[in-house]
Amino acid sequence: xxxxxxxxxxxxxxxxxxxxxxxxxxxxxxxxxxxxxxxxxxxxxxxxxxxxxxxxxxxxxxxxxxxxxxxxxxxxxxxxxxxxxxxxxxxxxxxxxxxxxxxxxxxxxxxxxxxxxxxxxxxxxxxxxxxxxxxxxxxxxxxxxxxxxxxxxxxxxxxxxxxxxxxxxxxxxxxxxxxxxxxxxxxxxxxxxxxxxxxxxxxxxxxxxxxxxxxxxxxxxxxxxxxxxxxxxxxxxxxxxxxxxxxxxxxxxxxxxxxxxxxxxxx
Length: 267
Hints:
Layout: H1 9-14, E1 23-24, E2 27-28, H2 29-39, E3 47-49, H3 53-56, H4 60-68, E4 72-74, H5 80-91, E5 97-99, H6 109-121, E6 126-132, H7 133-139, E7 148-149, E8 154-163, H8 170-180, H9 185-202, H10 208-219, E9 223-228, H11 240-253
Parallel strand pairs: 3-4, 6-9
Antiparallel strand pairs: 1-2, 5-8, 6-8, 7-8
Helix pairs in contact: 5-8, 8-9, 9-10
């Protein structure tokens, strides 16, 4: 739950101290994530890395959860992968772990349950949640998402990662190497998957299964993927457009008012 502070576009648009405290349909997005985790039986202990300590003063409910021990708060680290590693270290090495992000405002307990059940059943060390781009585009026409186009699927990330075994956590250190070479991340990717896989991807001949098999073999851990059926799993809040989309989705979740309920006043 760390970010760029008030300079973040979502924080700036909402006047929030940091992005994860920006209200989405009237509720800070990080609380929406924590609500989903609290409602899932899969999540038995929650570690929150960020927001920075000074920002906590702006959210009495979040501060209250931390003070009550419902959430373990730790200070954010310089980058996402370092924050993830700090959270996993705080959690301890013996238990399966789920990592998600504080801007996953549309996350639900059902998504968490479905993803963690499939991740546990797959027999992998590390698992990434994906959603097909066609699923997202059908639900939200015109939405802009980062798409990885493989020979058998075009997929988007869901900011859901599972580490069923301690060995899988080594992937976080690989992620840190990619971040450290952010100006030339392809060099790290090339070293991890090899030139043949990169060439096959460039030619549109690399399948998801082949990509995962290559990554697993070269990194020494089994890496799997779970394709999720929920379009909203592929939506995080990184921009004003994402914020508007998330609020529209959440507005559609609200039950209709009973007949005879007075309409709210209009400005």
